[in-house]
From TrEMBL:
Source organism of this protein record: Rhodopirellula baltica WH47
InterPro entries: ADC_synthase, Anth_synth_I-like, Anth_synth_I_N, Chorismate_C
Residues annotated as domain Anthranilate synthase component I N-terminal: 63-187
Biased composition range(s): Polar residues: 215-233
Full protein name: Para-aminobenzoate synthase component I
Stretches assigned to the Chorismate-utilising enzyme C-terminal domain: 251-504
GO molecular function: 4-amino-4-deoxychorismate synthase activity
Location of the region described as Disordered in the Swiss-Prot/TrEMBL record: 212-238
GO biological process, one term: L-tryptophan biosynthetic process
Length: 517
C-alpha cells in the first residue's frame, strides 16, 4: 500500500452524504416522542430551586465517596485524569435518588418514560453560572437498551442465560456534590426535585442539610460488599491464559470469529464490526476497594462508579460518548490502540506506528462518518463538523487514536432524543451500525450489559454528559465481569485482534490482581 492511500480513504468517508436508511430508522422514533414532549409544552417554565453549600477544598474524594456508603444507588462521575480539559474539570457525587426507572430486557420499553422525564427537565429555567451537573437525571443505559430502538438487533431469549438482564437504570437525583478540580473546591447542590420532577426550595434545603449531617458523621456505614461467588457460575466460560480468568470464547474460537467477520466484510455485509470477549474473575474484595484500585492503576477522564442495586458498575473509561453544553454536542470516538511500555522512546515509536496505520485510521474514520450521520438526525443543518481526526491520546496503559465530531442541536430536540438517535456509540458497534449489531449478537451469544453502553447525566442546568463504558468491570453474582474487544476490518489479522483484547485487559487485571503486578 502506498503512503497516500489512507488519506484517500479519509477523503472518501468524510465527504459522504448522511445514511438515509439510518436517518429514517431514527426519525420515526423521534417523531413518536414528539407526542410526549408536546404534553409538557404548555407548562410554564419554573425556576429550579437550588440550595448550595460550600464544602471547601476536598483533597480525598475516595473518603468523601466512602461517607455515602450505605445510601441507595451511589453514583460517582470521577474525572480521575485529564483535569486540564473541560471533560475532566469536574467530578460529581450523588446518591439516594427520589425517583427510579429500571427495566430488564424482557420488560416493556422504558425509553418513553425517559423521554417524558427529559421533556420535563427541559422546562426548567436555570442560571448559566452553575457546574455542568446540578442534579437531575443520571444513570445507566446498557448496550442492549438499543433493542427497544431497533428490535431486529435483539438476541434470542435463549442467549440471556435464564436470569433477568438489566435494560436501563436511571434515577432522579435531587442533590449532587460538584468538585471543581481547577480550584479543588467542592459544592453541595440540592435542587428540591421530587419523584414527579417538581421543585421546592424548602425541600432542597432540608435534603441538603441531611446530606451535610451524613458527610460530617464519623459512623461507618456498610459498604457495597463482594458476595460469595455463585458456584454454579464457576464452570461457565472457558479457561484462559490468565489463572482464574474465564472467557465466553475459547481463544481459537475468538480467532475464528474474527476471521468470519473479515470474510463477511469482504463479501460486502459490513465495513467494520466490533467483537468482544467477556472475561470474568471471582470477586475478591468489596466493589469500593476494587474501584479504588482501578482509578489508581488506570485513571481516565470518564471514570465512574454506579451502584445499580444487585450489581455495581466500575469503569475507567477514556471515551466520551455525548457531551452537551449550551445545546452544542461533542462526541469523541476512539478507534485504534497500542500499549504503553514505560519507555518514552518506545511509546513514541508505537504512537507513530499507530498514527500511520492504514487499518486503524480507516477504522477510526468509518466511525467518524457514522457519528456524523447520527448527529445529522438531531442537529441543525450544516452544523455537524469534524474538528479533530485521528489524534493520539495517551493513558496509563494504552495509547489511542481519537477523533472529535461536533454539532448544534435543533431547538425542538431534547437530550433523550439525541441519545436515541446516536445510541449505542458507533465506536463499539461498527458500521453499518444495525448490521454490525446483528453480527455481534450472533457471535457473542450473551448480553454485554453495561459494557459498551453508557453512564451519564441530564442536568437541570440543561447540560448532559455520557461516556462509553469500555475498561469496565461489572460486579455481579460474586464475580467481576470485564469484556474487552476491538473493531474488525478487512485489514484485521485475527491473532493480532485477540492480542489487542489482552492489551486492553491489562489495566483491569492490574487492579483485579494487584499482588501479581
Amino acid at each position: 500500500m502506498c503512503l497516500g492511500e489512507p488519506y484517500l480513504a479519509e477523503a472518501f468517508f468524510l465527504h459522504q452524504w448522511p445514511d438515509i436508511t439510518r436517518a429514517n430508522f431514527r426519525s420515526e422514533l423521534i417523531a413518536m416522542q414528539q407526542t410526549a414532549k408536546n404534553a409538557h409544552s404548555a407548562i410554564n417554565k419554573q425556576k429550579i430551586a437550588l440550595w448550595t453549600h460550600s464544602l471547601g477544598r476536598v483533597g480525598d474524594l475516595e473518603d468523601l465517596f466512602g461517607r455515602l456508603a450505605g445510601t441507595k444507588h451511589r453514583l460517582w462521575f470521577d474525572s480521575a485524569s485529564d483535569h486540564e480539559h473541560d471533560r475532566g474539570r469536574y467530578s460529581f457525587l450523588a446518591a439516594d435518588p427520589v425517583g427510579w426507572l429500571d427495566a430488564s430486557l424482557t420488560d416493556p420499553d422504558p425509553w418513553p418514560k425517559l423521554h417524558n422525564w427529559c421533556s420535563q427537565i427541559a422546562d426548567f429555567r436555570h442560571s448559566a453560572e452553575l457546574p455542568p451537573f446540578c442534579g437531575g437525571l443520571a444513570g445507566l443505559i446498557p448496550y442492549e437498551a438499543a433493542w427497544w430502538l431497533e428490535p431486529t438487533t435483539r438476541m434470542p431469549e435463549s442467549f440471556l442465560g435464564g436470569r433477568p438482564q438489566l435494560g436501563m437504570a436511571i434515577g432522579i437525583y435531587d442533590w449532587t456534590i460538584a468538585v471543581d478540580h481547577s480550584t479543588g473546591e467542592a459544592t453541595l447542590i440540592s435542587n428540591g426535585l421530587d419523584s414527579s420532577l417538581n421543585a421546592d426550595f424548602e425541600r432542597a434545603r432540608r435534603r441538603g442539610e441531611n446530606v451535610l449531617k451524613r458527610l460530617s458523621s464519623t459512623a461507618q456505614s456498610p459498604r457495597t460488599g463482594a458476595t460469595p461467588p455463585n458456584e454454579n457460575l464457576e464452570s461457565i466460560g472457558h479457561p484462559t491464559r490468565e489463572a482464574g480468568v474465564r472467557s465466553n470464547f475459547e481463544s481459537q474460537h475468538y480467532v475464528e470469529a474474527v476471521a468470519e467477520i473479515i470474510d463477511r466484510i469482504r463479501a460486502g455485509d459490513s465495513f467494520q464490526v466490533n467483537l468482544a470477549q467477556t472475561l470474568s474473575h471471582p470477586a475478591m474484595c468489596e466493589a469500593d476497594e476494587l474501584y479504588r484500585r482501578l482509578r489508581q492503576s488506570n485513571p481516565a477522564p470518564y471514570s465512574v462508579f454506579f451502584d445499580v442495586g444487585n450489581e455495581q458498575i466500575l469503569s475507567s473509561s477514556p471515551e466520551g460518548f455525548l457531551q452537551v453544553r449550551d445545546r452544542h454536542v461533542v462526541t469523541r470516538p476512539i478507534k485504534g490502540t497500542v500499549p504503553r511500555t514505560g519507555d518514552e522512546i518506545e511509546d513514541e515509536r508505537l504512537a507513530q506506528v499507530l498514527g500511520g496505520s492504514a487499518k486503524d485510521r480507516a477504522e477510526n474514520i468509518m466511525i467518524v462518518d457514522l457519528m456524523r450521520n447520527d448527529l445529522s438526525i438531531v442537529c441543525k443543518d450544516d452544523s455537524v463538523r469534524v474538528s479533530g481526526l485521528c489524534e493520539i491520546e495517551r493513558y496509563q496503559s494504552v495509547q489511542h487514536l481519537v477523533s472529535t465530531v461536533e454539532g448544534d442541536l435543533r431547538a425542538d430536540v431534547t437530550i433523550s432524543e439525541l441519545l436515541a438517535a446516536c445510541f449505542p456509540g458507533g465506536s463499539i458497534t461498527g458500521a453499518p451500525k444495525i448490521e454490525a449489531m446483528k453480527t455481534i449478537a450472533r457471535l457473542e451469544r450473551q448480553p454485554r450489559g453495561a459494557y459498551c453502553g453508557s453512564i451519564g447525566y441530564i442536568s437541570v442546568s440543561g447540560n448532559a454528559d455520557f461516556n462509553i463504558l469500555i475498561r469496565t468491570v461489572t460486579q455481579r453474582d460474586g464475580r467481576w465481569h470485564f469484556p474487552v474487544g476491538g473493531g474488525i476490518t478487512a485489514r484485521s489479522e485475527p491473532q493480532s485482534e485477540l492480542e489487542e483484547t489482552w492489551t486492553k485487559a491489562a489495566g483491569l487485571l492490574r487492579a483485579i490482581r494487584p499482588t501479581e503486578s
